[in-house]
Amino acid sequence: MTDARIISIAEAAVDELDKMCHESKSLWRAERCGVPEATIWSKPGSKVRIFQAEAILAAPPSIVFDVLHVNVANVAQTREWNTSVNECSLVKKLAPNVEVMLTQTFAMYGGLVSARDFVNVRMSKELPDGGYIVGTTGIEYEGIPIKAGVTRGMNGVMGFLILPHDQGTRLIWIINTDVKGWILRSLIDAAIPAEMESYILALRKHVATLQA
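Above: the chain sequence. Below: its structure as tokens.
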């Protein structure tokens, strides 16, 4: 696959992510969420169920963007708040705002899913209002071996919309992940909302420390 083709895939992912973030909630089902100033929704996707979380963060969009995008490959920093990440590395930079990334996780969803890795292309854009959008989707990319004991998953279109808010940032986060393997998808779908709650709480705590 050529670099130009991968960049076009990334551009389409950003457009699709933006569409999902702004579409009517009548297309989504509300999920249980016990986190204040946050909601979780889901809807059927082409292969797996897609989840959306929305939360208010007491930090400006620039800080949230740095945490979720700029510094995510600094695994030591990322593990301070996101303990599921084992590895996140740049495979190839295709443009100033487009990269092929390899992410490897530890066991996920309370141990329900063993270690996985994902090869993604991601694109980021700064928005006119001072926010950001980061779109990601899985791709087939040659030359990246799978480590022993790790299963390669495949992501659909997912990512973050990071918007200014009078309290700091309004974050919209989409998960669209096929973890592969033999685990029943219904069990994974039941576990994702709790995982998203934990992620939001950890992210809030982390961005607060960056401003202390």
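The first strand starts at residue 29 and ends at 31.
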